Amino acid sequence: MAGIVKPPPDERRILIVGLGLIGGSLAAALRAAGFGADKEGAAGFRGTILACDPDADEIVRGIEMGLIDNGDTRLEALVEGASLVVLAVPVLAMESVMVQLAGVIDRAAPDVVVTDVGSTKAAIREAAVAAFGRMPTNLVLGHPIAGSEKSGVAAADAGLYARHKVILTPEPDTDPAAMARVRALWEASGAEVLEMDVARHDQVLARTSHLPHLLAFSLVDTLARQDERLEIFRYAAGGFRDFTRIAGSDPVMWRDIFVANRDAVLAALDDFEAGVARLRRAVERGDGDAMLATFDRASHARHYFESLLNQTSYQAEYQMQQHGKLRYRVSPGGGVTGRIRVPGDKSISHRSIMLGALADGVTEVKGFLEGEDSLATLQAFREMGVAIEGPHQGRVTVHGVGMHGLKPPAGPLYVGNAGTAMRLFAGLLAGQAFDTELTGDASLTKRPMGRVADPLRAMGAEIDTAEGGRPPLHIHGGKALKGITYNMPMASAQVKSCLLLAGLYAEGETRVREPAPTRDHTERMLQGFGYTVHREGDTCWLQGGGRLSAAPIDVPSDISSATFFLVAAAITPGSDLVLEHVGINPTRIGVINILQLMGADLRLENEHEVGGEPVADLHIRHAPLTGIDIPVEQVPLAIDEFPALFIAAANAEGVTRLRGAEELRVKESDRLQAMANGLATLGVEHVLLEDGIDIVGRPEEEGGEGARYAGGNIDSLGDHRIAMAFAIAALRAGGEIVIDDCANVATSFPGFIDLARRVGLTLEEQQEAS
Ligand code: S3P
């Protein structure tokens, strides 16, 4: 594993008070990071680790294990010259240790910093105030979220903190230098350091750690009591083992935690009991639907936490540091033949869940995109109390709660990389009775949300954004919305849809005028759900206060995903490819129009309509392409397709000119810049402009089979469409194309690699070393 090796902390003498699993593992991790390792070399680093523990045997064991240099059972014998004191005693022992420390702390180094590892923080802050008279500014409270059911120094593990979080809970007047030193201590042990206030820490831990421990202790104890001879455990299978592993944890430590964090634990337990009572009633009544809804929600939440929530910005960045990012290596050449079906349309998938959730009745969705973006939307509605079954092979069942049936979510709604989710949610949530917070990943956090927040405010919504109108969005519910007439300054379906969704909750009419046609899936689906949306020319409007009734939704394949293979086939001699069941909504077919203008041999077959959206099979064969001036009215109709179209342009003869596409600068990356950088790497001549680009394609050689540009190393900037565009570029490259930072392909196109291989590309994924 490629990890970033952090330097050992710059401390002279670290004193660990309490040499158990946690303290011992910290010593072991510091040793492994090189702290105090170079004892002999005069120029080397000479830090020492001392430990204090009431059990002299533990000290001897710690010295024998090479974890500490020395130790004692008495604190006053060790504190001399200590630069960093780590209190690693059980929570309830903290106060007496702090009282002892307060009596001798003046013998420590003048710049001594004190920290602790206790699992609850409010109680320890109280203990500190009692011991020192106030919270010292050089005391940084902290909590490593790591442990094991084992205890004692013998179980010390140098890797215990690697890739685990440590939460520091500074006070407003905590000395920043002290914070920095405690942070360095934990980073050296491989942990990721986060900050939180004390109250929030205790609530979060009550739910994520203390409650599960309580349940595990209770379950094992209940079963053990029922079966004095413990016969029953002989038959215990994996489920029991998995659920109860933590019941083997240190009883004293856990008693202390429950005493110290009583209130937060009780609140968590109340919620849990209510949940169990609901399930009990469902079991009692044989209410299979209710059980299924709960289990489905839980099962998906569990997967979601692993695959998505773990990817919150800090986590994703952290994981990248630890494991490296995902990289594609694409060999030059290859063919493009076959019949494939790309995954469901992202825009329609988002909307199917949103409208399905607000409808009366049950919405059955087919062809749902199981990509991270639309799954984030699905999860957000689960967090607002909507029972959603699936997705199972693209099938989702949404049990609508009606226009006013959403429940306040327990925490912020995390929508990952999905601009569509954030902007549409903003409108929908502005009309709710409760407050919400919308957050997203690092890329989304940079994208402009003022474009929705401003008109929503004009409707009467109250929304706070971060600086510059960026996420997170805090939406204050319970505001009476009024319909407005809005002249959109940019052609954005997301802004239009956001306002229409808010308009459902507004008094009177909400009208949106678009400067150019944008995708109209929201309007179509609203109509499909029985909600009248009017359109006259460039303006659409609806009347607030109506209801939605559930209707089945058949999501066509996403033309934006199909585009990568359309371009792949268009540029590759000998190709012949059919893409089945692709949505060809007139507001989305800019790519078809543009490719045909460039001379592509692209035909629509088997055209028909599913659930209000036109679909067709797209049949494409190789034909020489010619550069064109892209008609400006096609730009919003192909807005997501330009990364791939730029690759078509690089393979066309002559110049392709794009103008009026400044929106590309605020997508998942600045797509004009990202593509220009990549084209430069491949040696494709181009001129980048503020609102577009000129791409100069070389004349085709005789026979048209040669390379059109070089290979090279491309940075996708974490943008799924940049990554996929350069993957298909390899078909005509002179050498391998290596694309960095490709994990986000999963946001819109799960299975891209498999389909690309199936049609004839040669590509592999690997972890980038960091
Ligand atoms: C989308 C609209 C487009 C598009 C995005 C999806 C939608 O954004 O780029 O991928 O589902 O409404 P804008 O409307 O902001 O251009």
Secondary structure layout plus pairing:
Layout: E1 13-17, H1 21-32, E2 48-52, H2 56-64, E3 70-72, E4 84-87, H3 94-104, E5 113-116, H4 122-132, E6 139-140, E7 142-144, E8 165-168, H5 176-188, E9 192-195, H6 198-226, H7 238-244, H8 251-260, H9 262-285, H10 288-307, H11 313-323, E10 326-330, E11 337-340, H12 346-358, E12 362-366, H13 372-383, E13 387-392, E14 395-399, E15 413-414, H14 419-430, E16 436-439, H15 450-458, E17 462-466, E18 470-476, E19 485-487, H16 493-504, E20 509-513, H17 521-528, E21 534-536, E22 539-543, E23 553-554, H18 559-571, E24 576-583, H19 590-597, E25 601-610, E26 613-621, H20 642-650, E27 654-658, H21 671-682, E28 686-689, E29 692-697, E30 712-715, H22 720-729, E31 737-740, H23 745-748, H24 752-759, E32 763-767
Parallel strand pairs: 1-2, 1-4, 2-3, 4-5, 5-6, 8-9, 11-24, 12-23, 15-16, 19-20, 30-31
Antiparallel strand pairs: 7-8, 10-31, 10-32, 12-14, 13-14, 16-18, 17-18, 20-22, 21-22, 24-26, 25-26, 27-29, 28-29
Shikimate-3-phosphate (S3P) binds at residues 347, 420, 492-494, 497, 518-519, 639-640, 663.
